[in-house]
């Protein structure tokens, strides 16, 4: 028995998820929609057989669950509409940019037939699985802290330019879009985080998002999570999250690569010779969505976890200390 999944939002992430849903045996696409004629045209070009509805309501009708890949602004309204119809809500992050509104959303999602879940794409990844294994086996030793390092020559990145809202301070910025993933990672492995200090740097144009972000967070027992993120200059994109252990460090690069070091050179912890890491992550996520829809234990991020990340992110963007 397959689940009928509606997709609202056909930007980069929506099209990527749509392609993966069509390849996953547990799902069928019940409807898709986007208000942008350009996004619709790109979807038809890549996936010409997909029927695109005339409205979000038409796309959502009859679905078992709704995947929301739209910008943060309209996300709450669609999520509540789906919840009222008894549909599961699987959404992109952030939940929103207004913490009070997002707290209300989480409270309302909790009353639905299924608790809402959020697409932090590393949650079911092979990298998370391997790090959990190494920690449980004692190979990493005591976890001492996590360092998050991000460098982009420009934001948004070239492949994200179609999503113009990503460059704007109101809803966009890489702290919301990228660093949130790594704060989720830190929370999963270290527990709840508290922001101690944050120093964002913004351009002169008040409508544009952050240029740099420096921040320090701590766990309940004082373990540090540090963030250093910058934009500008000429180099490849750099996204590294180092989980420091007393016996072994593990480092995520580009989300899905996992490396490790016991003091010597970094070596790859995973073999990707037989599968594509990005496709693997989304297929594994969809398998967890299948478990969630069947009421079974799953690895997906809860709406409560996503809210905790959002509150940290918005505090970082406001600056502290």
Keywords for this entry:
about 325 residues; alpha/beta; Rossmann fold; Dihydrodipicolinate Reductase, domain 2; 2 domains; eight-stranded mixed sheet; six-stranded mixed sheet; 9 helices; 14 strands; globular
Describe this structure in words.
The structure is a single chain. This protein has two domains: 3-115, 3-Layer(aba) Sandwich (Rossmann fold), CATH 3.40.50.720; 126-273 and 302-318, Dihydrodipicolinate Reductase, domain 2 (2-Layer Sandwich). The chain contains nine helices and 14 strands. It has helices at residues 12-23, 37-46, 56-60, 72-84, 99-109, 126-136, 174-190, 277-293, 303-318; strands at 3-8, 27-33, 65-68, 88-91, 117-118, 143-152, 193-201, 212-219, 224-231, 238-245, 249-253, 257-261, 267-268, 301-302. The protein starts with a strand and ends with a helix.
Short synopsis of the structure:
The protein is α/β, with parallel strands linked by helices. The chain contains nine helices and 14 strands. An eight-stranded mixed sheet has the order 7-8-9-6-10-11-12-13, with helices on one face.
